[in-house]
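PT: before anyone asks, these are the final sequences, not the draft ones from last week. 266 residues across everything. Please model them as a single complex and drop the result in this thread when it's through.
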Amino acid sequence: MKINYQETTNDLLTRIDIHNKYGGRDIDAWMLEVLALQPGMNILDVACGGGKQCVSFYKDLRGNCTITGGDVNEELLRQARLENEKLGKPFTIMPLNFDERFPFDDNTFDLVSCCFAIYYSSNIPFTIREMHRVLKPGSRLFTTGPMPDNKKVFYDIIRKATGKEIPPMPGSSRYGSEILSAIENAFAHTEVKIFENPLTFKQSAPFMAYTRASLSEDRKLWTSLFDSHESFEHTIQSIHQVSDEYIREHGELVMTKVVGGFIGTK
Ligand SMILES: C[S@@+](CC[C@H](N)C(=O)[O-])C[C@H]1O[C@@H](n2cnc3c(N)ncnc32)[C@H](O)[C@@H]1O
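LR: through. Structure below.
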């Protein structure tokens, strides 16, 4: 099934920035702790976006590694290339569509990562088989994505404000189920790690900036809630009112990200 989805650099960087400012924990520090990378590794970051994980891996290994980042979105690849330039161009940043055969030989990489993206695959078993194919025997796939309890308050507020059901999200609807099963089927051994990060908002402005960058018309994920720019703005206003009420009542709004880190060993 093809998912009609589009990420913009602006929306992605806005959400990352809000996680950094209002979250109590650092997901990249958790990822590095869970992975315990070894010097000299050959790493492929699939759906690298603006290059966030490539940079984390590189810094963690103090440059002693080979990193390839691939994504289907040219705008985000440009952002990843900017990050690459800042570091003196240690990475290979390239177009890569995970719905198609990866342009790498079998048994090439020591780690394949894919953060907050695998659920946009049109054919999950195919994409996971490709990740498995390019990994060396005994090496690992690492994916992240939302678990069912992710951002419960966020969805509750939107439901209350709109009186509508939340459209099925490609991530939370199938990451902990269909995608985990596909990894378990393909890999010799699979581990599940959970990362929880409470984002605390004392005012609704940053929560609303997060909401805009999530519901964004550009992403095409939420269009069942609005059918024009005007109705989008109207939806945002209603959410703003409900979040103001929530903060008045509770003193703050705590939205907890619940992320699953799945590690498949070949
Ligand atoms: C939420 S972003 C995550 C980016 C990055 N991994 C991060 O965590 O900052 C999702 C990414 O999946 C990418 N993506 C979506 N469909 C893809 C496909 N078919 N092949 C490769 N990447 C894809 C998007 O372009 C976007 O960069």
